[in-house]
Input
Amino acid sequence: MTGRLTRAFRVLLSSYVTTGFSAGFGLMLIAGTAWLLQGQFVASVMAVGAIICIPPDHAAPRRGKLGSLLPAALVGLPLFAGVQLLQDQPLYLGMLLVPATFFAFLAGAWGSRGLPVVISIMFAMTFSMAVPRHLSQGNLLTTCIYFTSGSLLYVLYATLANALLNNRYRQQLLAQSLLALGSLMRSQADRFDPTTDTPPIGELMQKQAQLAEQLQAARDLLLESPRTPRRQQLAAIMINVLEIRDHLLASELDLDLVRSHPEAAPVLVEMHALLDQMADELERHADDLLFFRRSAPLNDWRPALAALNRMPQRLPAQEAQGPSLTTLLRGLTNRVGLINDEILRVNRLARGKVEPDLKAVRTAWKLFVSPTSWSLRPLRMLWHWDAPPLRHALRAALAIGTGYLISLALPWATHGYWILVTIVVVLRGSLSQTLERRNSRVAGTLLGCALAGAILSTQAPPLVLLVVVPLAQAISHSFAVRRYLITAVAATVVSLVQAHLISAADGPMFNMLERIADTVIGVTIVWGFSYVLPSWECNQIPSLVHRALQAQARHAQIALSLGQFNAVDDEPELEWRLARKEAYDSLSALVMATRRSLVEPRAVRPALEPLEQLLSHGYQLLAQLTTVKTMLLMRRDEDQSDIQPVLRSATEEISNSLRDGRSGGASPEFVRIEWGNQEEFSDPFVYDLKPWILRRLNMAQELAANMARDASAALKPSGEQRLP
Output
């Protein structure tokens, strides 16, 4: 298959497309059955009840799946009924919409779990406006029963479908993690080649953040109940993916120093090619999972890496106390070799040639799975004026109120709720996400109207249209997060065809023109209210910087502790993995906030240069400590008494520097540590590791001091830019 065709199949076989079409099938099953038994109106109302429960329906662990869907159905019913009851009383309806919007958007306090619930609750109100009471074949109670039946049937269906697709979701999310890791590896490989343009460090950090998000989604599924051999196998591969990420990050060490020597260019070019081949192997494993193929044996690239270690022993300009270029290159090839080793282990696990480490994938790993309960703590913490969810809820309520008033004043107010739907799906907590959705919504509406017009012009019977709606809903749900333009096109088709089904008296052409006009009005309102009670990123970045520094200090303290090598159980190792995860997650959150700030007004942008330096030094510090831990593991069977004072000194120095950064003060110059007699650097991982451990520790201290200075520079202007 060609590269483009392969990428297309990867999308079609992804977890989000599977979830989308599962949702579409459930909607078609509910609406189609209702149409056959009760007729068109009942089917349309039950379809509305099902649609409002679709936004929270994603690939998820079986535990907690029902709890993630129920809030949409339970909260949606009274709001649907309230809108139906007040539909002929515009004033009272507006008095319901505005405060209900405020409380609905407060669900954003739960982050990525709460946002789909916000959408569901708002859909319950806005879509209720699409069900005119005069078309009902019964009273209000009857209409609400139809709505409730659709919601509950979909909740039950989605819970069952998620359980049935659980094993497939595990394979898909692991495959998506492998593909994300392969993409990061290619960008990292480009930095090796001095003959090509080096990708910006921001691109690497963005891919690191995307990989961290993908890995958490995969953890939630793969580490839940790994009881069967297949689940244990997939969970073990997941653990190896985390190790590959660490070794890939460590491959950056000494790279700039090596690149500065023209003599190293041929070796780096070959190393670039080898890393690209390893990325190919990761992608082949991902494709094997997606296409239900058995993995084939892989090549061991260690001999090819060993062949690269042919350089002069020492260059004329070599510093007396530093490692030679030959030694640096050997260390670099060895770190790339560790990536190769982990990929080979992934291959052997996939082929069943080695058994997974059950201690690593069972009970203790539940700590890495996201919580599924709805704690009240996020809600209790948002009641202060600077809380972004509170400000966003107020902003949304004002925008909805304005949109509703405008819809009442329009001469064509047949589908005034379309303005409100546009506001709901476009308005986001950050300006960058709102602007991105604004542009996609307008373009998607134009394309969707053309497509819906073509469908309705065929004068297809209602049963055919009841198939079109679930299909378009499936596509809309599939790409809601990945490609919103496609979602906007499909959602427009859903709304126009659904409106035609509910009220066939309306002309399709007028509906399309009205839809375009309402979308333009809606996105204009959203754009204007994006600057009302804004939550600029410069106000959030100080807490993210403090979190990153604290996480780095915690990780250094645990990574440089010898307790994990002497313990009789896995608790210290587990503690280190938790600290490592928090260090990655804290940096990823800061990366995303920094990128979102790029489209904000210049007057409120944070100081970008020190933030980028802080992030770069943070990832480098993680790499240094990972390498130190690897070398300490290699010394595990040796006497460690001589290294304990050195590790304690380095830990204290790193902690002090990062603490100074959190307090806002500039970190003093760090004190380089010494360890006995300074011996010449030998071939890494072959002879005495003392000089290498000492070198890495001193570099880690320097990076911690740099992070403190970066933090001080980054936080200083953000304090001046803080807005009321």
